[in-house]
């Protein structure tokens, strides 16, 4: 594994561990419904991001395109940073009252005051978070992805320490304050390192240009239009589950969703350094690119099978860690979502190849399909089946959307990502069998 790949894995692991440890502290201190309250709040706040056209996520690309022009790089960083802060501050002010009013309808009387305070803090934190993320992304653009990973990991550790210190005294609001301080420290650290590395950049923003604004906004609009489906799918599904099944149900679903999703993200983090190599080979030596894809796909399929099978097998221990009890619902949710996300993870390497080849339409169509299925299928499940089936149908939606994209990419690019399919049958078969067995056992244990 490359140095950058290793640091990306460490950063992803730190994010995963901090999230679950912080939620466990919250559950132990305040109860499981507060973990659901945290998830619901973040779902509402995340909805605002679909309105953003600033292109904050693309700052690394813009800075890299400056290609050593320090003045232009500084203009991209300062112009986009200012636009992001101004745009998100305006969005927060515009959407606060309607979202606040709608959010309050989800809260029981006994937690309403704390919930609304948490919502206010999360809204305030949003512009700070996005400006900080943009600056950390700019470190990638100057070739310091290692520094970005180190700073992010340090800020995550700080969040955990502050949560441990503040939670006993201020409850869930203390955890929210810890998160704001994490964002502020990450922003300041990234800014200081950027100012040291980019000679035209000062500690305080002052390098602005219309050209940088036009370029970043144009790219941001394209980037946002392609990412709207997934930006909506997660918060929308969380909000619907919170409304239908309550905060305790949502807490267990969200933790299970994060376990499966983060496992997939770890695989992506491991593979992401291959994107530049694919980008180079698809334009210079397609045969070598396809050979690399086939060779990597087989090894990754085995790794993914082992990872997700292990995840199912240790999920009872995770239930004890998070809830201090064995929750049949949590084990069911984890198995179902691991099956959905696990099967889609087999196609991650193909997705990277397709991105390198600039074949993005199938991924975008698959995401839009997931979003289109989300509301009607959740509503139909709520009408005709018990609530415990909701995570199962959501896993099915994830599988359908990503499989559609995978098949489209394979056919368009005429790929054969798994040349030795027979050798993978025992690995994939074991993974699927373990998931199905756990789902079946838990459904038998749950009283309907």
Whole-number radius of gyration? 22 Å
Share of helix among residues? over 70%
**Unreliably modeled segments:** none
Query: What's the total number of strands?
Result: 0
Oligomeric state of shown chains? single chain
Straight-line N-to-C gap: 48 Å
Query: Which class do the helix and strand fractions yield?
Result: mainly alpha
Instruction: Give a quick account of the main beta sheet: strands, pairing sense, barrel closure.
Output: none
Mean pLDDT: 85
With helices defined by DSSP (H or I, 4 residues minimum), what is the helix count?
16
| Fraction in beta strands | under 5%
Element-level helix/strand string: HHHHHHHHHHHHHHHH
Overall geometry: globular
3D architecture notes:
- The chain has 16 helices and no strands.
- The protein is globular.
- The mean pLDDT is 85.
Task: Pick out its properties.
448 residues, mainly alpha, 16 helices, 0% strand
Topology summary:
Blueprint: H1 3-30, H2 32-47, H3 59-65, H4 70-104, H5 109-141, H6 145-170, H7 172-197, H8 210-245, H9 247-271, H10 274-284, H11 286-323, H12 328-345, H13 348-356, H14 361-384, H15 390-413, H16 421-445
Helix pairs in contact: 1-2, 1-6, 1-9, 2-5, 2-8, 2-9, 3-4, 3-5, 4-5, 4-8, 5-6, 5-7, 6-7, 8-9, 8-14, 9-11, 9-12, 10-11, 10-13, 11-12, 11-16, 12-15, 12-16, 14-15
